[in-house]
Design brief:
homodimer; mainly alpha; Farnesyl Diphosphate Synthase; 14 helices; 71% helix
């Protein structure tokens, strides 16, 4: 990440960072990582191979850090938050493994996708194993309420993925329909990851609702920024990993906006490329130009800022402190990635 | 099913049947079926379509009936057994959906496999959804011990499937290795389905261990008979659906036995057909002849009888009654399917 420059005024702002959150959760994250390694172990050698390939490929671990920070901020002093954070990360990893099969992806986080190395079969089954392990660990924690929160998320995520599959290649997708998909497939796990913090700490309904709202809205902002970045972000220029969604025919918010704001010719272009899968050389460049013309990336980032603001306000009732500041800064960090 | 004739003596024996179990659990199974329909529902139309396709295609529902009968036999009077039975059936259905993707199956229970109708993607994701729903319903029941039992099973089943995948096409598989696979992928769910009966009834460790042993051994017997039936059962003749395992290159106990008992020529044959995937027209007939020569089907059924006897003895300490008789008869029913 480079220095963030405010586009409007060109003056430097202090850069939002994930570092304060990383520092506050570092000791607990060491425990989470040790537990991850232990619970991804199996006498069946293929399981740790596949799991470690994905786990070690360097995701930011935002979700488990949220669980840890939320529990700490709520004054929790036990060790259940470490186990729940591990379960959250396993649920996320299982989803990535299954997503790669569903999307027929070749790459994941800059490495060959597990399905390309071990086959679709291993990706499906190791995903199932990690999900089973996640539930085992949650059961060990012994909080039925945390179990309910995370099993709700598991069902909702899968429902969201099916929803996305059913809506795929449909250019008539509205912004509301798209939001419903990402609310389920992305925001539900962010939401549960944050909410189990106050749940395990026994902080009561108000705190649960606040962290649920924080997680949901951060998840929405995070996904929308991801969608914008897939088209090059605010610079909206061709670069590394730009255009994956376009090539896979995924209809994301930038496209939904450009399609609605465009001319009939524009709409015919999007239909040919995404709905009919007829994109050819040069179409991605034209798509990026259309997104720029119709302020579709800017519009997507504006939406992300809106959900980010909701996330920050969800934590407003809590008194100031290092944890609150770190969680608020993560929102700005997620949104500022887009520059 | 025809009349069962004892091979040794040719005299008629009363036919073992699943009917007593069906009768005892009929009222509760109506509740399970209603719950299945409700929990397979979703605004995302593809979910009930895929789920109902598989659910309505007429499995015997042995596993949920075991949960219901075990709970009833242990004097349980609540309604949690209905929810747990539903969760067991959803776990089973999710496994079938993922299995079809892993095995690249075209057919399931005489109908086109879901993956042929809706694609691999829907099979993976609807399986995930059903698993999520299963856990949600288990959480509603509120028994951490039942949750632990079933989440253990979920992880073990997936581990067994990966084990099978890793061992696939390896003719050196031993009987013990094969047993370890089916103990995980098949027997673990039978075991958990039976054990949650005494768990929810609060019957204590001895009853739990007895039902766990009953379920495990019934599951092993069930799978071994399935393996024998895939080669035509005791008649070992070509018929409808015979040879699926052979065509898919699956190494099951009949093959493990025939391979070990056979000549070098026989072993070369099995290697060519199953390990190297080089089976041609006429090879299935030759395989069935080899299985007959080496008593490999009979040997497999003998093993199934052994585990069946263990299952029945596991229930021996309980006093006689309709439920115990029905559960014992199911063991004989499962083994007698092979004739």
């Amino acid at each position: 990440m480079g220095v963030v420059v405010s586009l409007e005024e060109g003056k430097k702002r202090p850069e939002a960072s994930v570092e304060p959150l990383v520092r506050l959760t570092a000791a607990d994250m060491d425990r989470v990582n040790a537990l991850i390694l232990s619970k991804a172990g199996s006498d069946v050698a293929m399981i740790p191979e596949v799991a470690n390939h994905l786990i070690s490929s360097g995701g930011k671990r935002l979700r488990p850090m949220m669980t840890l920070a939320a529990a700490q901020m709520c004054g929790y002093t036990g060790k259940g938050h470490v186990e729940l954070a591990m379960a959250v990360e396993f649920m996320h990893t299982a989803t990535l493994l299954h997503d790669d099969v569903v999307d027929e992806s070749d790459m994941r986080r800059g490495k060959l996708a597990a399905r390309k190395l071990w086959g679709n079969q291993a990706s499906v089954l190791v995903g199932d194993f990690l999900l089973g392990q996640a539930f085992r660990v949650m059961v060990e924690v012994g909080s039925l309420q945390a179990l309910g929160c995370l099993s709700d998320a598991a069902a909702i995520i899968a429902e969201g993925e099916v929803m996305q599959l059913a809506a795929a290649k449909n250019m008539a997708t509205t912004e509301d329909e798209y939001l419903a998909v990402i609310r389920a497939k992305t925001a539900a796990l962010f939401s549960a990851a944050a909410e189990v913090g106050p749940i395990i700490a026994g902080s009561g309904r108000d705190a649960e609702a606040a962290f649920r709202s924080y997680g949901t809205n951060l998840g929405l902002a995070f996904q929308l920024v991801d969608d914008a970045l897939d088209y090059g972000g605010s610079s909206a220029a061709l670069g590394k990993n730009v255009g994956d969604d376009f090539r896979e025919g995924k209809i994301t918010l930038p496209v939904v906006l450009a399609y609605r704001r465009g001319s009939d010719d524009d709409r015919a272009f999007w239909k040919r490329c995404l709905q009919d899968g007829g994109a050819v050389e040069g179409d991605l460049e034209h798509a990026i130009a259309l997104l720029k013309t119709h302020d579709a990336i800017t519009g997507t980032v504006e939406r992300a800022r809106h959900y980010g603001a909701m996330a920050k306000d969800a934590l407003a009732p809590f008194k100031d402190g290092a944890h609150k500041r770190a969680l608020v800064e993560v929102v700005d960090f997620c949104v500022s990635r887009v520059h």
